[in-house]
């Protein structure tokens, strides 16, 4: 298989800089499976019922940004069935991961969580995409797929990442939910002393700092009156 040239429309954060849609994905949770869970948040300008992975090649760009496939891999830009299956896996992952953070079996819901876990395990049993190392035009070794992966193989890769995370006691202890207001992103806290509070210091962290500054300014103004 010939080496694949870099895709000029691809960037490390999964953004397509030349696309009219300003939507782009973040990959800062520490695990691919958690990055998929994070896609449940509405797209900018979209309503709460809109599927963030649907339309405008978003799922394709997420797969490339998550490095599940190399840039340039021919994938369907918009396939409703692919979007449906990844959204289903996302829902299963969210149930299982949040149960681990909040305490499995607490407050009921153990049956639904176990059902979600069974679905994750079933998807993880499939074979992930076959990859190989090839040289790009500069002679550097890069990752390429042996053939174009199908949906089941890509789902298996994400589900296997979840199984590895959830069965690793050290990694499981580092699962956190963002403390930002109205943010439910989950991440692996690998910071020194495990003191990370937000999914991103630049987004939720900055938002919290701005809100704190405004509260202090308002309190100071009230004290002067």
Please give a structural write-up.
This protein has 225 residues and is mostly helical. 44% of the residues lie in helices and 7% in strands. The strands form two sheets. A two-stranded antiparallel ribbon has the order 1-2. A two-stranded antiparallel sheet has the order 3-4. A hairpin with an 8-residue loop joins strand 3 and strand 4 (186-188). The N and C termini lie far apart (74 Å). Mean pLDDT is 80; it is low at 1-23.
The proportion of residues in beta strands is: 5-15%
Rg (C-alpha, Å): 20 Å
Give the low-confidence spans: 1-23
Count the E strands.
4
**Helical amount among residues, as a percent range?**
40-55%
Number of helices: 7
Structural class call reads mainly alpha
Strand order of the largest sheet: 1-2
How far apart the termini lie comes to 74 Å
Q: Can you summarize the main beta sheet?
A: 2 strands, antiparallel
- Give the helices and strands as they follow along the chain: HHHHEEHHEEH
What gross morphology would you assign?
globular
Question: Short description, anyone?
Answer:
This protein has seven helices and four strands, in the order H-H-H-H-E-E-H-H-E-E-H. It has about 220 residues and is mainly α. Helix 1 (about 30-40) crosses helix 5 (about 150-165), helix 3 (about 80-100) packs across helix 4 (about 110-125) and helix 3 (about 80-100) runs parallel beside helix 5.
Write the layout of secondary structure elements.
Elements: H1 32-38, H2 58-65, H3 80-102, H4 110-124, E1 131-135, E2 141-145, H5 151-166, H6 169-173, E3 175-177, E4 186-188, H7 201-224
Helix pairs in contact: 1-3, 1-5, 3-4, 3-5, 4-5
